[in-house]
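Schema walk-through. Below, the input block comes first and the output block second. Nothing else is stored per chain. Lengths vary across the set, and this one has 446 residues.
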Amino acid sequence: MAKQTKSNTIVHPRYGCAIGAAYTVAAIPGAVPIANCGPGCVDKQYFGLSGSNGFQGSGVASGGDMPSVNFGENEVVFGGAKKLDGLIKSSLKIVKGDLFVVLTGCSGELIGDDVASVVKSYRNQGYNVIYADTAGFKGNNVRGHEIVVKAIIDQYVGSYKGKRRKTLINLWSEVPYFNTFWRGDIAELKRVLEGAGFEVNIFFGPKSKGLSEWKNIPKAAFNLVVSPWVGVDIAKHLEQKYGQPYLHIPVLPVGEEATSEFLRKVVEFSGISPDKAERFIEQEAHEYYYYLEHFADFFAEYWFGLPSKFAAVGESSYNIALTKFLSDQVGLIPVRQIITEDPPEKYREDISALYHDLTDGVEIEPEYIEDGYLIEQALYDTDFGSSVPLILGTSWERDIAAERRGLLLEVGTPATEEVVINRSYIGYRGALTLLEKIYTSTVGGK
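--- output ---
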């Protein structure tokens, strides 16, 4: 059983609370989040999930411009439904959007505001307004993400009895903003899946067509979940609602071998002809190994001064994906893998099993630790051998990396020394970017 370390407090948090899912809404083109919570709640989520996480920026009606009830004493005593009603009315007039999502925080849920009734009055008038109960006591922003997605499916997408398109798939993977590189990663997944012959609903970011893709969810042949656990409950919900099957691939593909295997699994599950996928794989592999062959000159020359052992600290999807790639394809040795986003207990055994088959003869037991102090202690006690320690982590690991005279690559929340626009570390292209980043840090000393 994987080691699990508990603490009564959490130092150096690596996620937001459930209402941080406002940024799931903000990531949907045409959608507008409305915060039914106290002042500062969503503002703190912005700084944690975006500003201090690759400086990802904000879109329309997010960041400091997000409509918010700003609960005060008056609302706590007398209720906030009236103020929420006025806020929705104003938002519909002022903010341009095709879907408005009211997210309720702790204050509104604790006093029992009937948000559903307020929202219903606008729906009865023909407005696309829905709601999601995302109080912080329900969990972190990853749980909030799934709550919001299900709310949009149930209240906006609705029922469907028509046909499905054989090549159309719904992709569920990284959590917008929380996953630092979500924009580039989702774009790369879309690119390779389309190269293999599919149409892909991705729902979030600049490559998404926005709400039209959400309306097309029931028309897809199946749902594809690419994550250790996030999105599985969404896929099960869709299976029950629309009778759609789903394929769960728990490890994000990084590098040629993993990405080609990933595409072949999806093609086999779908039942479409593999011809187009194989041509695409051949083309991508040729280009990938061209670059890798030239990188090999550097690697062969300087290998004696490069890191040979590494630790990974962060949420499970990037942790296992990068650990598997560096172990299997680069030959580095994993010595400490710490998962930080508090995955549900029901998924932990399966997540841990992924680390038991990293490559031939290489396995490690991951640890589930949320508290930054305990993580720092664990890294301090880790044996990296005589080579330079390599830590794939967050800004919170910067001090311990310096103390161990190691290299830190920020790959998760928070990332305060990375500016992320559309970078990706997955797929064919992302793997090359990852190698560039690691070994630039190695020769540059940072």
